[in-house]
């Protein structure tokens, strides 16, 4: 590995290749493999091809790999029957093989811990109990990107259910540390369970878990505190957040920087070390009249390092979670925006950048960009969406 890295970095791409440290985690560069849940886990057991799939990205010089969403140890956490679990002997043996392979190739990796909440409804009929803050669900997105009409599905979560899921996140994080992972990411975006608590359309509670945006962070705060209690002060905790929801691309948690600050403060205080700000296009400003994107604003408001993503190394078009053809439409490898990305990193707007589809297209994306071999990059194509190649 060392010999592959001896060639100097192409000067214009240098901001992508500076080392970065957060708590006990030091990365060789700023390039992250974005979390991608691709199924291939019958009964929750990761397919035997996962370790080599992740290892190839580590060999391709990805600084940090974030696993696809993996279900915390609670019977309602997973969304369908093919998503990997982060509990049970066989799934954990699979994850252990993955982290060992990544480390052997000089890489770093953290699992994305996840509870899907009422998203299980996207895969009807669910054969397990669904949990959401108020039992309110929105199908979508519709053609204009917004959610469909609300549906009431089930009862609001009880206090006992809330406590059990808080405990499940803590247990999963402790497991991650014991298996040798380099940190954890809590998935609190995209309209999954934690985000269902954040969002006023899915959280109609009148107890201490509902109310203002700040009040609606309480469930996440309890999860973060439980994780921190179990993993100690130095183990890095990332949290993924997003304004948009998979069922409503037009949704926004915060309309002003002040509103965003009210949301972030309790999360930062509870132990987030780095905010992974999920964007569909990294250039998208967070607020009118500002050049900063969400990751820029979150860093400015909290002082914490941030990560952003959205369309890096791809042609025009935004990620559309519900429409494989839309992924296909953005298939071409495009590097025209890498200059502006590097400028944003150089300015310190945010600290890390993640790639999803481009890194599916070419596992050696970082190595090729570092060496000025951009013309050799293999483009993303729709058939790679669910592939472990
Ligand atoms: C196949 C696939 C699976 C994904 N699964 C997840 C996931 O498990 N968790 C998550 O937070 N985001 C997931 N995403 C979203 C990506 O992490 C990323 O935010 C999005 O694709 C935008 O990045 P890109 O433009 O580089 O593809 C997934 C994306 C793809 C393409």
Explain how this protein is built:
- It is a single chain.
- By secondary structure, the chain is of the alpha/beta class.
- The chain has a single domain (3-384), classed as TIM Barrel (Alpha-Beta Barrel), CATH 3.20.20.70.
- The protein is 30% helix and 12% strand.
- The protein is built from 11 helices and 12 strands.
- The chain has helices spanning 50-59, 89-104, 159-179, 193-198, 218-231, 257-270, 294-302, 324-329, 338-347, 357-361, 365-370, and strands spanning 20-22, 25-27, 31-33, 64-71, 109-114, 136-137, 151-152, 184-187, 237-241, 274-277, 306-309, 352-355.
- The strands form 3 sheets. An 8-stranded parallel barrel has the order 3-4-5-8-9-10-11-12, surrounded by 5 helices. It has a two-stranded antiparallel ribbon with strand order 1-2. A two-stranded antiparallel sheet has the order 6-7.
- Strand 3, helix 1 (50-59) and strand 4 form a beta-alpha-beta unit.
- The longest helix has 21 residues, at 159-179.
- It is globular.
- It starts with 19 loop residues before the first strand and ends in a 19-residue tail after the last helix.
- The site of flavin mononucleotide has 23 residues, from strand 4 and helix 10.
User: Major sheet, described briefly?
Assistant: 8 strands, parallel, barrel
What is the beta-strand fraction? 5-15%
Strand order of the largest sheet: 3-4-5-8-9-10-11-12
Quote the CATH topology: TIM Barrel
């Amino acid at each position: 590995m060392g010999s592959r890295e001896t060639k100097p970095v192409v000067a214009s791409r240098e901001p992508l290749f500076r080392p970065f440290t957060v708590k006990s985690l030091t990365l060789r560069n700023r390039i992250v493999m974005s979390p991608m849940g691709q199924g291939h886990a019958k009964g929750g057991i990761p397919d035997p091809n996962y370790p080599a799939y992740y290892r190839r990205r580590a060999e391709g010089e990805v600084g940090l790999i974030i696993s696809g969403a993996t279900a915390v140890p609670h019977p309602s956490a997973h969304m369908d029957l093919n998503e990997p679990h982060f509990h049970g002997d066989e799934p954990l043996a699979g994850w252990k093989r993955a982290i060992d392979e990544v480390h052997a190739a000089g890489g770093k990796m953290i699992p994305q811990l996840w509870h899907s909440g009422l998203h299980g409804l996207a895969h009807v009929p669910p054969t397990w109990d669904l949990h959401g803050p108020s039992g309110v669900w929105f199908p979508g997105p519709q053609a204009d990107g917004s959610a469909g009409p609300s549906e009431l599905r089930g009862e609001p979560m009880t206090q006992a259910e809330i406590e059990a899921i808080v405990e499940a996140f803590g247990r999963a994080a402790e497991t991650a540390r014991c298996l040798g992972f380099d940190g954890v990411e809590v998935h609190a975006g995209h309209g999954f369970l934690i985000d269902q608590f954040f969002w006023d359309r899915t959280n109609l509670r009148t107890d201490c878990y509902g109310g203002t945006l700040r009040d609606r962070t309480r469930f996440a705060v309890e999860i973060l505190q439980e994780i921190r209690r179990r993993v100690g002060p130095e183990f890095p905790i990332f949290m993924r957040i997003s304004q948009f929801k998979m069922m409503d691309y037009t949704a926004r948690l915060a309309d002003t920087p002040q509103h965003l600050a009210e949301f972030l403060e309790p999360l930062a205080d509870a132990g987030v070390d780095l905010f992974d700000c999920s964007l569909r296009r990294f250039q998208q400003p967070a607020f009118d009249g500002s050049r900063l994107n969400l990751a820029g604003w979150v860093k400015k408001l909290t002082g914490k390092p941030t990560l952003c993503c959205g369309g890096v190394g791809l042609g025009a078009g935004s990620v559309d979670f519900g429409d494989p053809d839309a992924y296909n439409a953005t298939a071409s490898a495009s590097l025209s925006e890498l200059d502006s990305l590097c400028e944003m990193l150089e300015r310190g707007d945010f600290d890390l950048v993640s790639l999803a589809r481009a890194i599916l297209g070419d596992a050696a994306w970082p190595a090729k960009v570092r060496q000025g071999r951009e013309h050799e990059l293999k483009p993303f194509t729709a058939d790679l969406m669910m592939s472990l190649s």
